[in-house]
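Figure 6 in text form: structure in, sequence out.
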């Protein structure tokens, strides 16, 4: 399977899994989210004291609702029309159907002057650099990029960059379409940020409350000055 076909399969999986994903998130079917990662991303974003937030790959909108309940103005975007429809029905923010390729080509379509752009388990393919470089244009000068992704220890071996497949086992007894996703090492995440024009501000590893093993990797990055940023 080519890189392009994997990306297409990834996109199709979110179209096919929209209803199952909405039910799993709203029904609390994903243990790691209940135990640590949902609270971790909310804490990381609110610690920045932002006024305007962009939730990249918002899914059914839970994070938008959680941040809006704390008084923030939040825009959620997702490439799945069904997920955006579910998010709009639940309310809490402004939602738009917008794919990552569309943002990379014309970042103004996502909005402007966001104090924080959040990608919560939402950077899943191998071609993230063009998107992250484009997002520099919508982040306010003192703003931040917040990324949460599966921790390498939780993902398991092998510890090298490459495509994997998520079968959503344990996320609920419903038909799921397997999802290709791209695994990065910690070093690769840091290199991706640098080549996309960001500098790491903070790194956290939210832990399972009982096993004390890390569940996710949480990165907070700031814009490198235009003169120091890599060329697009």
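Output sequence:
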């Amino acid at each position: 399977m080519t890189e392009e076909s994997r990306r297409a399969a990834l996109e199709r999986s979110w179209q096919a899994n929209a209803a199952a994903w909405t039910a799993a998130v709203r029904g609390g079917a994903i243990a790691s989210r209940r135990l640590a990662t949902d609270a971790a991303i909310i804490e990381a974003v609110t610690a920045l004291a932002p006024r305007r937030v962009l939730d990249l790959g918002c899914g059914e909108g839970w994070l938008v609702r959680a941040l809006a309940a704390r008084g923030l103005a939040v825009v959620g975007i997702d490439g799945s029309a069904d997920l955006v429809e579910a998010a709009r029905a639940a309310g809490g923010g402004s939602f738009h159907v917008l794919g990552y390729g569309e943002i990379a080509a014309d970042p103004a379509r996502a909005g402007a002057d966001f104090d924080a752009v959040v990608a919560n388990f939402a950077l899943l393919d191998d071609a993230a650099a063009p998107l992250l470089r484009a997002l520099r244009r919508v982040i306010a000068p003192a703003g931040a990029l917040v990324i949460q992704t599966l921790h390498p220890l939780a993902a398991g071996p092998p510890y090298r960059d490459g495509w994997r497949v998520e079968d959503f086992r344990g996320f609920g007894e419903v038909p799921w379409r397997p999802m290709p996703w791209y695994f990065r090492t910690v070093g690769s995440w840091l290199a991706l940020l640098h080549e996309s024009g960001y500098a790491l501000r903070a790194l956290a590893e939210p832990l399972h409350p009982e096993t004390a093993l890390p569940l996710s990797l949480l990165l907070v990055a700031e814009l490198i000055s235009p003169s120091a940023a890599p060329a697009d």
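Caption detail: The longest strand covers residues 139-150.
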